[in-house]
Amino acid sequence: MRIDIITSLPGLLSGPFDHSIIKRAKDKGLVEILIHDLRKFSTDKHKKLDDYPYGGGPGMVMMIEPIALCIEHLKSERNYDEIIFLSPDGELLNQKLINRFSLLTNIILLCGHYRGIDERVREHFITKEISIGNYVLSGGEIPAAVLTDAIVRLLPGAISDETSALNDSFQGDLLDVPLYTRPAEFRGLKVPKVLLSGDHKKIDAWHLERALERTKKRRPERKG
């Protein structure tokens, strides 16, 4: 899989992809992540990327030309399954979308900044708009890192125990169960006895009961 990230601030993404699961996936050749500095595609002598919005109003808007030139350059080299714009008013990211994205071969992630981007980019270049939540961040770099992490961990071989990813919260209708590990008792705080019993039927029943309880309490809108 290849993920191309277009950003005006490449330094913000220099760290998140060099650690943990993503680094291991890169080292194994499971994913290729390339960060493209949008300023290299600016035709302005000062490498300007933004301008005042037509019609007035506060804030600055990212111009169409550098973005179009960058996307066209990437598309001249390969075909892309999706060109995703990270935007607070996009479709809310969920596990079902992430599962679908993890099956793709090539995707572009476009990080916005300032007040937003020229609408013509959204209309003519973008195939999908994604939001990681109903709030506003300074730019699309953190959402791009979130989306990349969520996708990469699902790639076969990225996680040593692949069944772990399949049992994550949101993979099914229920949230994940409470988790415990050694020691069995710490300062009088004990692990539930059923988990130490070795009786897998009882443990499975306990897991289901706790998952239903947690989902009802924390995600009442879910139908699990």
CATH architecture of the largest domain: 3-Layer(aba) Sandwich
Low-confidence stretches: none
What percent of the residues sit in helical stretches (DSSP H or I)?
A: 25-40%
User: How are strands sequenced across the largest beta sheet?
Assistant: 2-1-6-5-8
If you average the pLDDT, what whole number results?
A: 92
Would you identify the CATH H-level superfamily of the largest domain? SPOUT methyltransferase, trefoil knot domain
Multimeric organization: single chain
Work out the helix count: 7
Describe the global form: elongated
Structure description:
The chain is of the alpha/beta class. The chain contains seven helices and ten strands. The two termini are 32 Å apart. The model has no long low-confidence stretch (mean pLDDT 92). The strands form three sheets. It has a five-stranded parallel beta sheet with strand order 2-1-6-5-8. It folds into two domains: 2-152, 3-Layer(aba) Sandwich (Alpha/beta knot); 173-218, Trp Operon Repressor, Chain A (Orthogonal Bundle).
